[in-house]
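1st attempt posting a full record on here, be nice pls
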Amino acid sequence: MSEGILILLSAAFVNNVVLAKFLGLCPFMGVSGKIGSALGMGIATTFVLTLASITTWLIDTFFLVPLGMEFMRIIAFILVIAAVVQLTELYVKKHDPSLYQSLGVFLPLITTNCAVLGVALLAIQDGLSFIHTLMFSVGSAIGFTVVIVLFAGLRNQLSINRVPAALQGSPIAFITAGLLSMAFMGFSGMV
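the predicted structure (as tokens):
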């Protein structure tokens, strides 16, 4: 089990999908304007990423590999992710309409979030077991949520500070993301 904890911590902090693998940058930059929206997106992505990774691992292990159809992975995984996103969207719409409205178009965009597909493919490519896939996907999702919420807080602080006109908007956001990435590199010696 300690190996599973190491996988979880490594996926969350050292090999963060956003800052180290550069996956999921669209919602990272798009939804990180408000902390509430970023947290909601992080929670929705956590659910989708974890469920999709587990489901795709099961489909790959019990259907695609035994039938010699590994070439169908990407198509099968995309279909699974789309189905999980639709179920999540229906659930959020019914149980938290304010979150559904605040996420707006970004909730359906989880379908095209490359972090979700990337984590599922990385788990298969690395030959992870079911438990390790679960830990890897949960760690990746936690890392995604932590980073997007931290970045939303930083962007919130930037909005109340004086920023030179040439750096306002996207330029300072990208500089801040780079600094955040370098800060997370400090975890590499710990795990």
